[in-house]
Amino acid sequence: MNKLKLEKRVLKLIYLLCILIFTNLALLEKPLNKNAIFIGLGLCLIIGFSHYLIRRFYPNGDKFLFIFSSILAVVGVAVLFRIDQSMAIKQLLWVILGIAAYIVISVALPNMSKFADYKYIYMIITLIFMPMGLLYGLIFNVETNGAMNWVYFGPFGFQPSEFGKISLILYLASSLKDYESKNNIKEDFKQLIIPALIVMYSLVCMVLQTDLGSTLIFFGISVTMLYIATSKKKYVFTCLGLSVVGAIGAYGVFSHVKRRVMVWLDPWKYASDEGYQIVQGLYAIASGGLFGVGLGNGYPDLIFASESDFIFAVICEEFGVIFAVGIMIIYFLLFYRGIRIAFVTSDKFSQLLVVGLSTMIACQTLVIVGGIFTVIPLTGITLPLVSYGGSSMLSMFFALGMLQKVSEEN
Asked: Is 320 left (phi over 0), alpha (psi -120 to 50) or beta?
């Protein structure tokens, strides 16, 4: 089967999935919920038209990036419609804006290699965005679910760290592209000291904001890009060693880190308090079984932040573990397509950028799913392209747009 036939079949699968899910949602209520039908048809039209534009005017790039991200977006809007219809409509608008940004980046931006010379601009943006949520929270005494990682302008809010991680990846790609092994510890250290300080600055800002999920994501991105740039395992093991020391120090200094670890070790002991969210999520996953209880038959209202942090538990409950595994496979394929682009890219900056963006998607998925299944302490971040949130949706489509752009160039 050639790529074009496979692409068309997967696209038809998206339409079928969209129609089946939203028709089911429409039939859950009596009289018939027409909003579900309109949203389903709207998604089919938006995805079909966007795919046509990409295929028609930019036939050489990777088309599966958009297709796989569209599947995730459809599932996300559908589950949010099940939880809260007004929330689903807002999410649909964010999806439309994200797809528009994806296309604009693919169309309007020049060759990505031309952005390699602006590392100081990326550094400044990173230095500004990383502490923004913390400063806003301290000045206005504002916390959102125990974290100071949001900035509000009237009724509108956004997470600076969502865009800060994009600028951090751009900075590391532009900074590490010129790395050359000198076979001298002192000379090698000189090349890496400033990027290391920027990464440490970012990690400290996230810990102070109690945004532990972003801390893990930033660390994973940085270590991966460092290894790709240097090909030296000793740097990776050094970073891992320092991370262990930092984690032990954070556990002893920050009470919120200690609480997260205690709840992770024994969530049932804190089931009526701080462990309630995790326990309810595990109950939801267990009750769903392999095939789920059926759309509309679950109890997402019992799970705190079911629209964001724990939307994967809702998917497991109503669609089943098999469907949830399918979602994880889609994320893996997104990561694979990104890494595949890196293999065919000759430009070092573009290669590092693609690796960083692909790792960002993979790390964010693994961190939140691992937290829900108590493999790691719960960190409270969004599931990419599925959870409710404009900042996360836009930053993901920005990242995918840049991946698409690099694939067009190669």
From this structure: left
**Residue 239 buriedness (CB in 10 A; 0-12 / 13-18 / 19+):** middle
User: Per-residue pLDDT tens for 59-110?
Assistant: 778 888 999 999 999 999 999 999 988 999 999 999 999 999 998 888 888 8
Q: Distance (Å, rounded) from C-alpha 34 to C-alpha 15?
A: 18
Find where tokens 């971040």 sit.
381
Closest CA to 112 of 398, 273, 350: 350
State which H helix or E strand residue 16 sits in: helix 3-27
3-state percent breakdown (helix, strand, coil) of the chain, nearest 5: 75, 0, 25
| Angular region, 278: left φ>0, alpha ψ -120 to 50, beta rest | alpha
Q: How far is it, in rounded angstroms, from Cα 387 to Cα 308?
A: 5
147 beta partners: 144
pLDDT tens digits, one per residue of 182-224 = 777 777 778 889 999 999 999 988 888 888 888 889 999 999 9
Residue 282: in which H helix or E strand, if any?
Answer: helix 276-288
Torsion of CA 216, 75, 150, 167, to 10 degrees: 60
Secondary structure tally for the chain: helices H, strands E: 16, 2
Does the pTM exceed 0.90?
yes
Lowest mean pLDDT among 62-71, 140-149, 385-394: 140-149
